[in-house]
Design goal:
Rossmann fold; Helicase, Ruva Protein, domain 3; two-stranded antiparallel sheet; alpha/beta; 2 domains; 267 residues
Length: 267
């Protein structure tokens, strides 16, 4: 009987896909790159030949030891047996101005990893990421306002980055094959908070409130979050339909609404 992988891991074995992921970073010869979840190192070996400095974050201790042995003679590759959710990305900068990130994100903590990357992007630490994740999550991230998949995660991501859907892989590209398809996205971080005149914490609260119940209208969600009808009416963007749902609202209009609501934001 074949051994089951630890931690629910599905390792990418499609060599062409590995090359495409490495190439999606562009010319990285002078960049410092962080790889999340390198596994057996299929993409790691390609990155090591392309970048100035490579940090690998691997949670599985056996895989971390395997990688340490494999790259023991490569001084510009550092393997960290660590949890990405507690990793300080800024500590990996060294003399670099910023980091790029590559990762095959575990399905069960994709959102948490994205939040960590967003935080690093707001600090100017991470400027680019090529990430593989479950197709359905990628579709939500890349969805445009008006699409049924558009939600709080879409809005939060697009407040932080320009998103490009690169390609999708079938289960057969992995060993063992997962039960889902996987999609690779490129995120080029360019936070829009200053441009739109909003602060991260407050605007994030508004987004969560706005999408709290997707079947409700935006106004009803805001009332449920504690805003008064008068506050909402006074702040409502010109030209926005009164019964619109949050999934159909552009970020610019959501920012206008947030600025109009001011300190009345829901907790």
């Amino acid at each position: 009987m074949a051994k089951k992988p630890k931690l629910g891991q599905n390792f990418l074995v499609d060599e062409n896909a590995c090359v495409r992921i490495a190439e999606a970073l562009g010319d990285a010869r002078e960049r410092t790159v962080v790889e999340i979840g390198p596994g057996h190192g299929a993409i790691t070996a390609l990155l090591a030949a392309r970048v100035a400095r490579l940090h690998c974050i691997e949670f599985d201790p056996a895989l971390a030891r395997e990688l340490e042995f494999r790259f023991r003679n490569d001084e510009h590759v550092t393997v960290h047996h660590a949890d990405v959710l507690t990793t300080d990305f800024a500590a990996m900068l060294g003399g670099a101005a910023s980091l790029d990130v590559v990762g095959n994100l575990p399905y069960y903590i994709t959102s948490e990893i994205l939040l960590r990357l967003f935080s690093a992007a707001r600090a100017g630490v991470v400027v680019r990421a090529v990430l593989m994740m479950q197709r359905e999550v990628a579709e939500r991230i890349a969805a445009a306002p008006g699409a049924s998949e558009y939600g709080a995660l879409s809005a939060a991501t697009q407040m932080h980055a320009r998103v490009t859907n690169l390609f999708t892989l079938p289960p057969s590209a992995f060993s063992p094959p997962p039960e889902v398809y996987s999609t690779v996205l490129r995120l080029e971080f360019a936070p829009r908070f200053a441009e739109l005149g909003v602060d991260f914490e407050g605007f994030n609260r508004l987004l969560r409130a706005s999408f709290a119940q997707k079947r409700k209208t935006l106004a009803n969600n805001l009332r449920a979050a504690g805003y008064s009808a008068g506050q909402i009416a006074a702040a409502w963007p010109q030209g926005l339909a009164s019964r619109v749902r949050a999934e159909a609202v552009q970020l610019e209009s959501m920012a206008t609404l947030y600025r109009g609501l001011g300190e009345g934001a829901a907790s």
